[in-house]
Design brief:
alpha+beta; Aminopeptidase; acyltransferase activity, transferring groups other than amino-acyl groups; Acyl_CoA_acyltransferase
Length: about 130
C-alpha cells in the first residue's frame, strides 16, 4: 500500500472532518461546528498529511514557532490505516520541520497515553486548560 506524505498540502474542511470521524478523534472534536473546524484547519501553521490514492488518511496538525515549542493539536489516522506506522511517520516528518531545540507538545486522549509513551514521549502532568465561560 503506497502512502504519500505531504507538508502543508491544502486540506479541505470536509476532508478534515471526515478523517477525524473515521479516526475516532471526532468524538472529542467539534465536528458538527463547521466554522470551528474550518478555523482549526486554516489557522494551523504546520500540517503534515498522509494520502492514499488521493484520500486523506492521516494528519498531524500543529501550531508552532518552529524554534521552541510545537503544539501538536491533532494526530489522526483513519481506522482502516492504523497500525501501519503512519502516525509515527507523521510525527517524524513534523519533527523534521522543526528546529533542533523545538519541543513537540500534545494533550493525549486517555486511550492514547500508552501509545505516546511507547514511541518516546515523556509524560508531563503540568498542563492547564482555561475554558471560556
Amino acid at each position: 500500500m503506497k502512502i504519500e506524505y505531504k507538508i502543508n498540502e491544502p486540506v479541505s474542511t470536509d476532508q478534515f472532518i471526515e478523517l477525524l470521524k473515521d479516526s475516532t478523534l471526532g468524538e472529542r472534536r467539534p465536528v458538527d461546528n463547521r466554522e470551528c473546524m474550518s478555523g482549526m484547519i486554516s489557522n494551523s501553521n504546520l500540517i503534515v498529511s498522509a494520502w492514499h490514492e488521493g484520500q486523506l488518511v492521516g494528519i498531524a496538525r500543529s501550531v508552532t514557532d518552529f524554534h521552541y515549542a510545537c503544539y501538536l493539536s491533532d494526530l489522526a489516522v483513519s481506522q482502516n490505516f492504523q497500525k501501519l506506522g503512519i502516525g509515527k511517520q507523521l510525527l517524524s516528518l513534523t519533527q523534521a520541520q522543526l528546529g533542533p531545540e523545538c519541543k513537540l507538545i500534545l494533550i493525549a486522549a486517555p486511550a492514547a497515553n500508552a501509545y505516546y509513551e511507547h514511541i518516546g514521549f515523556t509524560h508531563n502532568p503540568r498542563c492547564w486548560v482555561l475554558d471560556r465561560s
